[in-house]
Amino acid sequence: MSSRIALVTGGTGGIGTAIVQRLVREGHRVATNYRDAAKAEAWRARMAEAGVPVTLVAGDVSRPDSSVDMARAVEKILGGPIEILVNNAGITRDTTFHKMSYQQWMDVVNTNLNACFNVTRPVIESMRERKWGRIVQISSINGQKGQYGQANYAAAKAGMHGFTISLAQENARFGITVNTVSPGYVGTDMVMAVPEDVRAKIVAQIPVGRLGKPEEIAHAVNFFLGEEAAWITGANLAINGGHYMGW
Length: 247
Ligand code: CAA
Prior knowledge:
Layout: E1 5-8, H1 14-25, E2 29-34, H2 37-49, E3 55-58, H3 64-78, E4 84-87, H4 102-130, E5 133-138, H5 141-145, H6 151-171, E6 176-183, H7 189-192, H8 196-203, H9 214-223, E7 236-239
Parallel strand pairs: 1-2, 1-4, 2-3, 4-5, 5-6, 6-7
Residues 92, 94-96, 140-142, 147-150, 153, 184-185, 190-191, 194-195, 198, 202 line the site of acetoacetyl-coenzyme A.
């Protein structure tokens, strides 16, 4: 397996941390972004203790200018162009649509969907020039099936796969694959923030009978990155314990 330069956005979060750890373990040089420097430093210390070296750069994926600076900083520190991009950063602002503010809509669309433009745009040209690249969007089961209280999130997550399948077509001849991973409910802070009674009802709908583990999502992301996956592009891999089996 070649060692590549990888940027995982939102790498300090629940699923992001597992993706970062897995990519480092696979031998890649991995960077992620942060907005809160103190929180990021504490996270980096935990990673260092676990023997996981990570490059941290400041960057707000919801902003185009900040995303360009972030991508250039990663390339400068790691000494080459970004070859693997995992658009993983995401937030929720759950509320029923009739109560949703414009800000709650925009925060989620900017961070979850517009970030795909903001972060991918500064890295795509060098991937095309070098004729190799791997791009993975972390979408969600709720982009596939919708979810009560998540009109903003489901719209953004569904949009991410529209982005994937268009980018996949445009870049297939350039050795770049573009795929989506759609996790179901994984045991992260984001899911644990759902009220306990609501969460219990959701878990009861999962045939496997439990929440997912972040490592189970990282495993799927890694699957898309190797040479053997060169013919897999425009795919959406649902990993949800059987919670949603649409096709
Ligand atoms: N289907 C139908 N009706 C529902 C419903 C559902 N799924 N959920 C709630 N309702 C009903 C309730 O029964 C209630 O009805 P009554 O007034 O008749 O009793 C009514 O809707 C109001 O519900 P709530 O009390 O829940 O309303 P609320 O305003 O307090 O909360 C909510 C709404 C914030 C959306 C809350 O229900 C919630 O947090 N839901 C979970 C949303 C969710 O799944 N988020 C996922 C976060 S994790 C993530 O996003 C990661 C990922 O990718 C999977």
